[in-house]
Amino acid sequence: MQEQARQQAQDQFEHWLRQERRAVYTDVLQDADDLRSKFDALVDCRSEIGDGSTAVEALLEFDTAFQLLGRRVVSLTTVAHPEVAKMYQRVMAECQTVLSIVRGNFPPDSLLVHKTYLYLAIGELVAAVSVDTQVGPAERRGMR
To answer: Is the residue at 40 inside a domain?
Structure first.
């Protein structure tokens, strides 16, 4: 009887964890997609010559998207698989690099190089989330 109650509690916890994980992953992936679109706008306006107001607005929008994604760190690290959390940290690090490039007035070419790195990091985050959501709790225990 006690073993059955323990197993039922474990099953309920795993069900709750799956629901929480899906909700957090949905939010993170939406924020990452928003970040990618804001980054595209930033790259596009940095390569154009103009009065600079568009570039400033694009930078502010990218920074806001970066901050929104950054707010997911606590919920993500609480329920996510460690590999997903690692990919999330990589995306955040690439965003920091992008902000350093833009704020340091580096040439647009260096921003284009980091576009590839940021896209790769976001793609790896999406892949890690996809793998984690397709693997059940029993199989996940064996993942590293």
So the answer is: yes
